[in-house]
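Please, structure for the following, as tokens.
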Amino acid sequence: MQGIWMQRLLKLYQKYAQFMRGRYGRWDTLNKVLVITGLVVSLFSRWIPYYIGDLLVIALVGLALYRFLSKRIYPRSNENQKFSQIITKIKQRDFKIDRTYRQFKCPSCKQKMRAPRGKGKIKVTCKNCHTQFIKKV
């Protein structure tokens, strides 16, 4: 009895392997984001009118499935790399703190300005309104 089930599972695995040969078949970052976004939208689709939420869920999950089963491996890989680069840029922009400069605003016109850190008290002239003031940096 155990041998029959094992043979069936092995045969099913071989059919799956044959089907997936030459396909992208990766659970990459973009596919994860598409599926998770689809699941989140499906939670809130009840409150989205005119079945737009349901259509959006089908589109997101369908796109992830299309990417997963695509035989065009290199374009799918390039899509994932571009997506990862965009996400990396967003993360760096949000969490990057420039420690070499001190940023402050002009007291009269609120223009953003910067000066190198560690210079002590300096006299600053605003380029916008030409107000001079002393700032510790």
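The helical segments are 2-20, 29-44, 52-69, 73-95. Residues 73-95 form the longest helix (23 residues).
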